[in-house]
Amino acid sequence: MTLSSRAISLAASSALRSRLLSLPPACRILSLEPAFTRGRRSRPAIYQPEGIRLYSSGNTSEALQKFKKSLQFPSATCSFEQLASQNQDLNDQRVVIHGYVGARRDASKNLTFAELHDMSLGSTVQLVSTPTKGVDGSDSPHNVLRELREHSPVAINGTIKARKAPSAGKGDSRPGLITNVEVKVDDITALNTFPDDIIMAKDTVFPPEQRHLQIRNDDSLRNALAFRSKAARIVRNELCDEHSFTEIETPLLFKSTPEGAREFLVPTRVPGLAYALPQSPQQYKQILMGSGIPRYVQIAKCFRDEDLRADRQPEFTQVDLEMAFASAEDVMRTVEAVVRRLWSELLAYDVPETFPRMSYEEAMSKYGSDKPDLRLGSEIRRVEYMVPVDLVSKIGPLTDPIVEVMKIPISEDANETRKFVGTFMDSPEAQPFIQNPHGQPGIFIFDSRKPLQGLQVFGFEAAEQVEEMLELEDGDLVVLQARPKEDFSGGSTPIGNLRLALHKAAVKHGYLRAPEGFAFTWINDFPLFSPSNDSEPGQGGAAGLAATHHPFTSPKTAEDMDLLLSEPLSVRADHYDLVVNGVELGGGSRRIHSAEMQELVMREVLKMSDERMKDFEHLIEVLRAGCPPHAGLALGFDRLIAVMLGKESVRDVIAFPKSGKGEDMLVKSPTKMTDGQMETYHLKLRA
Fold it and tell me: Residue 133: which pLDDT band, with cuts at 50, 70 and 90?
């Protein structure tokens, strides 16, 4: 039984367990060496059968008195902002301020200087202490301050004194340091103590199990959470005040419906019945459109039981909106206004009035991705018509494939480019491309000192065409890749993934500068349906098809409608994704607002069974009751904040993220169900 990362497992010895339980609580201390954790000194762990660990076995009366005193601490009468205001009227005033004790310097037995950090840990003022009696006759505040450990929370009763600011270039230039005044300590109320077994320094690295200390010790995490709060406020103000949206909360206990992703089920005490946590508020917001709500918005919690990556969490937050009597253009213009305001107010960055549009087909053709990073350049071109047949056979086993080429300008020195290629191909990042069943990439380096500039395998004519097409210069990396001659499906192609991997490696090794700025684009004209994927649940129809996004998306045009039954894979969706710097910030669509049409798509195109159709009866009924045309979108809020702050992982902008295995390492969730819980919810584990 693991109590924590510092506790000792007692499961191996029932005899030891029995002896421990027979001892008084204060004696149940293990002298065995505890497990190692970063950021802590070793200390014994205390076992309690109820699962509670005691950190002290001191005098109970003393503990009660300490806590009683902390209940009576004085209210703050002055803020750090007021202290920093250069207001001379504050001098010699008695104030109460709250904060955390910082570094202390004992100048002598009778003179101590200490830092006091404000509640947000963003500002610091100097405390000055000399021996006195407390205002209530208690022990000397001077002694209390000298005994308190750094990071302990306190209430300071003191007098503001003017302080001569240090000369330019000679003083402490730390951000938030108040230099115009200091506070002479008259009394101090210790509100808690910071334990001596936790070592907190600027360079201390705390593990996820100590997320509270990560946040406390890392101002970038605290700043990200504050930034996130401001962004949420701006989103609400822009949509509700400027665009007349109504913020509405939708239920978290929903029902299981086959929308495309795996769900989390919540069992009930009624045998066989369970709720499902919503993948998104999609159906509820469409129901609101049929309820006479013209514009809905919610900063919503959503849940998906899917594979985790840097930009995925099992629970996540999205800015969810829907508009009645609206088209895709209406939604996109509204979202552009929100994005402009966010970037303007939080980053002082000018975003274009409107964002460019690019079809799914164009994005996949030019960049090998449906969320292209336009800042990288390196557009992909088709060249199978000019590449010799023997070269095609050398780069893969495919017969009559599509062959694509791109260039990446690594270095002006061809030898440096060769060195980079060797390093990359030997790295783990290259393995997916080396093991591609459709063939490895052909990699060439343009070098004017070589025959045909290093492109001799292309033959004279093709080498000349490729040089002119790509505008090649010495040191440019030329990549050739074959793929099956099929329509695009999914989110990327091998050469598109290689484009990103090579750029990332080139930046890492100093050959290219990291891309800067923000490049926004809308990706539209997605296929409405895709072939079923065994790794995803889809909608459970029998047609071998799945809705590419969800089954409520409308075909784009009348021409697409004509193909719905005869050529469903050729139908374009009225769907649009907002992409910036290779990240999909969000996606939306115009919805099917007709009950007959919605039923046709589910029953006739996807071939859902009658049982599956019953899962959507509520929505069909809402659409039948005169639901107006409507469209909407959801912005991934965690992802949006990460992109704005330049973070690689959404975990850096979430207070308590899950690990790559979906675990909360601090609170140790998820937990194993007990036999009692299993019995309550009528569950059994299959062997």
Answer: low
Report the candidate in 661, 662, 666 with the shortest Cα–Cα distance to residue 213: 666
> Contact 683/673 with Cβ under 8 angstroms?
yes
Torsion of CA 635, 229, 303, 657, to 10 degrees: 120
Across 78-152, the runs of DSSP E, i.e. the strands, are: 94-108, 111-117, 124-129
CA–CA gap between residue 426 and residue 590 (Å, rounded):
46
CATH class held by domain 225-357+584-653:
alpha beta
In the predicted structure, residue 516 carries a pLDDT above the cut 50: yes
- Please give the Cα distance from 346 to 184 (Å, whole number): 38
Architecture field, domain 71-190? Beta Barrel (2.40)
Q: Which residues pair with 265 in a beta bridge?
A: 276
b/e map 172-198, b = 16+ CB within 10 Å: eeeeeebbbbbbbbbbbbbbeeeeeeb
Average pLDDT over residues 511-528: 96
Instruction: State which fold the 374-514 domain adopts.
Output: Gyrase A; domain 2 (3.30.1360)
Domain boundaries, the chain: 14-55, 71-190, 225-357+584-653, 374-514
pTM for the whole thing?
Answer: 0.85
End-to-end, the C-alpha distance of the chain in Å comes to 22
How confident is the model at residue 124, as a pLDDT? 95
Which residues in 321-344 are b (16+ Cβ under 10 Å) and which e? bbbbebebeebbebbbbbbbbbbe
- Is residue 304 within 8 A of residue 262, CB to CB? The reply is yes
Q: What is the pLDDT of residues 574-587, one digit of tens each?
A: 999 999 999 999 99
Indicate the average pLDDT of the chain: 87
Query: Is 378 strand, coil or helix?
Result: coil
Tokens for 252, please give them.
């978290």
